[in-house]
Amino acid sequence: MGEPLRVIQFGLGPIGCDTARLVATRPELQLVAGVDVDPDKAGCSLRAVAQSDAVPDVPVVASLAEAPAADVALHTAGSRLDAIADQLRTVLAAGLDCVSSSEELCWPWYRHPEIAAELDHLATEAGARLLGTGVNPGYVLDLLPVLLTAPCREVRGVYARRVVDLGTRRPQLQAKAGFGMTPEEFERLATEQAIGHVGLEESVCLIAAGLGWELDGVDFDMEAVLADEAVATPHGQADAGQAVGSRQRACGHRGGEGLVELELEMVAGVAEPHDLVRIAGHPPLTVQVEGGVAGDAATPACMVNALRSLRLAPPGLRTALDLVVPHFVAPATGD
Amino acid sequence: MGEPLRVIQFGLGPIGCDTARLVATRPELQLVAGVDVDPDKAGCSLRAVAQSDAVPDVPVVASLAEAPAADVALHTAGSRLDAIADQLRTVLAAGLDCVSSSEELCWPWYRHPEIAAELDHLATEAGARLLGTGVNPGYVLDLLPVLLTAPCREVRGVYARRVVDLGTRRPQLQAKAGFGMTPEEFERLATEQAIGHVGLEESVCLIAAGLGWELDGVDFDMEAVLADEAVATPHGQADAGQAVGSRQRACGHRGGEGLVELELEMVAGVAEPHDLVRIAGHPPLTVQVEGGVAGDAATPACMVNALRSLRLAPPGLRTALDLVVPHFVAPATGD
Fold this sequence. Notes:
Radius of gyration of chain A: 20 Å
Oligomer: homodimer
Number of helices of chain A: 9
CATH architecture of the largest domain in chain A: 3-Layer(aba) Sandwich
Shape of chain A: globular
Number of strands of chain A: 15
């Protein structure tokens, strides 16, 4: 093992702090700073903000300009690409490779083709690599289905479904799924895109691009799942008639035919959480992940495990389709 | 799409002929010749040998020296690396990229480190790439489990099992699994390594190498599964007390602890064929492929689909761990 890679943790919400804690377990990675605009965090030690003694006592600063030299940024400061584009510009201008949990960045050409082209140009110029990934989007509903076609002589369609028990997840995710809202409130916030998981359409696009399918478009809908009777979770309660979660669907189609269909159901108290992938092809495949990939624990892992593969890829804006198969690697010491 | 890649189908047994038929469906690939030492095949048209009008009317020759110029060889002429090393030497000397179904080539350092080093050197010198792959080894019990660790923060062990209904498979595979043999015959041929699936230990090594685990060794055993009553298949019958198939296990261990455990059960009339992968880690994962990946249809697909990824890799002897995620890509024309 050579010198450890110097890592900046950019964004210190729950996922960012957890990512810092995971990085701290890897001898090949060395946290050198945290970045967060929150005045309650900037100026503190990353160890204090991430609430773990295993995290090194390095500064949290308010902007990348104040951070020490580094090799890599792990970016967990937003889903929407237009809102984080300036942050990514500074990361790339500093020549850092960057893995971001931004859902839209998993396939940025779908909603923001101009920003995507610009970031690709900046990254290429700087000799840096930029990747959006996570467990969803980034793995369960896109990379995994794509790899599942490797034994197929022919593929006619891809269907995948993720069913999450919202009751076991962090409060932010419950709110995003509309938990506890009246149908009217849910409808209004869904229309404003203030609730709902971001990234299902991006996963559709990634699969279609991988399999060589040009789509006419991607249809999307989202509906509330309403409680028959009151449902309580550690973070709150939904009364009868209120939403216990949501069901989202995205369908990539061509010539009126659905080629890629993805469903995400996030409902408190769901009986059998799971991930399911069906490949309609020759041979056909049906693959089930019992209980589903645990999202909160897995997103930092997807990011950190992708880093090695990303650094083998050419500079530029990359996607999961460009990566040497990402996987866990045991720390060189320990285990 | 540029010019199609010129492909030589090297080896025209059942898998080789089926691979030729699959290649013929891909506009980005162009069959230019078949190679087979069998005097019943050399001198014929590949179309006749592969028994498909979709296959082009190109010659089958007895050796690569007689074949026209090409870019790629798909090699399906043997499992054991020492037996096919000369063929691979000529392929690499001709500067061809090569995907082989040789099971031992999936992790050649396990049984043949010297041949592996030599082939790696030859390939690198020639600017060519060499890969062993297939559905097993090459995918279900190695590449798939490796990718399934991508969402894991920690992995303590990998367990995978493939259960195949031998009754639905080609007669060669039934014979390899000992179908219809007495226990004594089975024992003798197993000891001589004349029966049994090749590649389980190679899959263990590939997983361990990917996950960064140095093994003390790989244990292997194979046993007959005996019929309680007579079992008939389209290709033959096993009487009560004779073998209806076999069960093989390989376990990669370190410090007395099993880190990678693989099982392959090939038994005629098995109730629920399936593939199963369990990752002991955080988060843990249990993934099941309903019915299992259909082996005979999938091996040519694994080879052909790996070609694109292989050609993105640097020259040399490569494994699944070096590949950009392999997957199906729809032909540029058609669908």
